Amino acid sequence: MSETFEVFNPLPLGEPKGWNNGMLAPAGGRLLLIAGQTARSAAGVVESDDFVEQFSLVLDHILAVVREAGGQPEHVGRLTIFVTNLDTYLSSLRALGAAYRERMGTHYPAMALLEVSGLVDKGALVEIEATAVLPPN
């Protein structure tokens, strides 16, 4: 069980690997909705064309919003990941896992992954939106 969420992984769904199927937020938590983030810099430019580097920067951006609101990685309850090339994602799983654990530890929220034909920011290969539940003030 997560310190922040009650985790639900029904046996008929099989053992999840790198995510959880259901995350129940504690009563009284504050809901933080985080817009889709890409690897764009403060100047509005995606500077790297490396998929793993972009993924890492996107997680950094997500966590910057969470921390600005007073939260920590374990308060993230859901990630929706959009990638422009599923094969690149799949071939990068080992490096992606290391980048993920460096930022999120062993906290695995509910996740979805979608392959899309393009993203708004020029050069973006990955975009992630998130939902976090922060403790009451």
What key phrases describe this protein's structure?
60s Ribosomal Protein L30, Chain: A, 137 residues, 26% helix, alpha+beta
How would you characterize the overall build of this protein?
The chain has helices at 51-68, 86-91, 93-104, and strands at residues 6-8, 22-24, 30-37, 76-83, 110-115, 126-134. The two termini are 23 Å apart. Helix content is 26%, strand content 27%. The protein has 3 helices and 6 strands; from the N terminus they run E-E-E-H-E-H-H-E-E. The chain has a single domain (6-134), classed as RutC-like (60s Ribosomal Protein L30, Chain: A). The model has no long low-confidence stretch (mean pLDDT 95). It is an alpha+beta fold and 137 residues long. A 4-stranded mixed beta sheet has the order 3-6-4-5.
Q: How helical, in percent, are the residues?
A: 25-40%
Output the strand order for the largest sheet: 3-6-4-5
Q: CATH class, please?
A: Alpha Beta
Low-confidence stretches: none
Structural class: alpha+beta
What is the general shape?
globular
What is the ordering of alpha helices and beta strands?
Answer: EEEHEHHEE
**Count of strand segments:** 6
Instruction: Report the average pLDDT across residues.
Output: 95
User: Helix count?
Assistant: 3
CATH H-level superfamily: RutC-like
* Euclidean distance between termini CA atoms: 23 Å
- Radius of gyration equals 15 Å
CATH architecture field: 2-Layer Sandwich
Number of domains: 1
Main sheet properties: 4 strands, mixed
